[in-house]
Write a structure and sequence with these properties.
This protein has 390 residues and is α/β, with parallel strands linked by helices. The chain has 3 domains: 206 residues, HUPs (Rossmann fold, 3-Layer(aba) Sandwich); 91 residues, no CATH class; 81 residues, Elongation Factor Tu (Ef-tu), domain 3 (Beta Barrel). The protein is 25% helix and 28% strand. It contains 9 helices and 18 strands. Strand 1, helix 1 and strand 2 form a beta-alpha-beta unit. The longest helix is centred in the N-terminal third of the chain and has 20 residues. The chain is globular, with a radius of gyration of 22 Å.
Amino acid sequence: MKTVVVGLSGGVDSSVAAYLLKEEGYNVIGIFMKNWHDESVTISDECPWIDDSQDALLVAQKLGIPFQTLDLSAEYKDRIVDYMFDEYKAGRTPNPDVLCNREIKFDIFLHEAEKLGADFVATGHYCQKGEENGRFKLLAGADKNKDQSYFLCQLTQKQLSKALFPIGHLQKSKVREIAQEQDLITADKKDSQGLCFIGKVKLPVFLQQKLEPKEGDIIELSNDLQIFRDYSRITDSDDYNRLSKAFNYKESDGEIVGKHQGAHYFTIGQRKGLAVGGTPLPLFVIGTDVEKNIIYTGQGDAHQGLNKNALFIEKNEVHWLRDDLKLEFGESRQYDVRIRYRQELVSSTLHMHEEGLYIHFSKAMTGISPGQFAAWYNGEELIGSGVIGH
């Protein structure tokens, strides 16, 4: 009998995952990951991890499976939280959920599970796993509205070989139906909306407790600047370096329209939190300068500063889940690409150059921000990913 350790989060998805695995005849062990208890940071008056761990315990008892809690808070702080603060401080936008899967759930947690004799680890992710010619494939979840393959874009073949996704072939509605039929306490529990490693706290609230507020200017830029006119003339060219580079704004390019409390709190494409009104179209962040503590904005989601036709990934940041499909220097190939969760896939051409990978979109992509992950797909299969540079 194969042994599977399930990461029981206290939510409905992992609860049903554990139930389905037991029904399939696996020897199932439930483990709750305790990821944060740093009292120097106020999360909320509540203790969400305590509630979640209690729900996970009750699910394990209902299913009749062994259960334990694993404290990974030190590893989370070292690998995820500190990295996240460093990235925001530098003006980049990390994705803690992608890092959480790569560094914790399918690395440290996997190693701990193997110590218990586990053959696999399982999660409640909405994605699917396939195998062909000895290669493992990460496939989109059957529920297109819940597909979470993007969050697993940094996994390796070895990690994927040890992973199971029991609910990936189901619709969310069916998952809740199964939970209700089995009388699981999590059946009607709302999906978590907070950070993957903390719970209910919102990201801006968390950042403000580690990154000091610092008042600076919000500058609005016209869509008719020369740098935008120059860019529009090269959008169909193969000058990928120019197409992918961030716009180099100057304070004199626009006018001050408001104040902010720290450029490191904001990311390109952000609309909320600017607190500037009275413009015909909503203001969006189109650039940040953390050295001068300036936020550059533009009106409307069609603003040229918000839309670019290419991005760049440094050579050492390019990751191939399907390493047999790796592009070599000088090669190009077409894939569908997204740069954030639940974003539509955009047909794109990947060009591997000596310095790294350029991705040229078939249409302009909105809100490209350094530090985010770009992921590329062939149909339903996720092929690779990388951290956006420039």
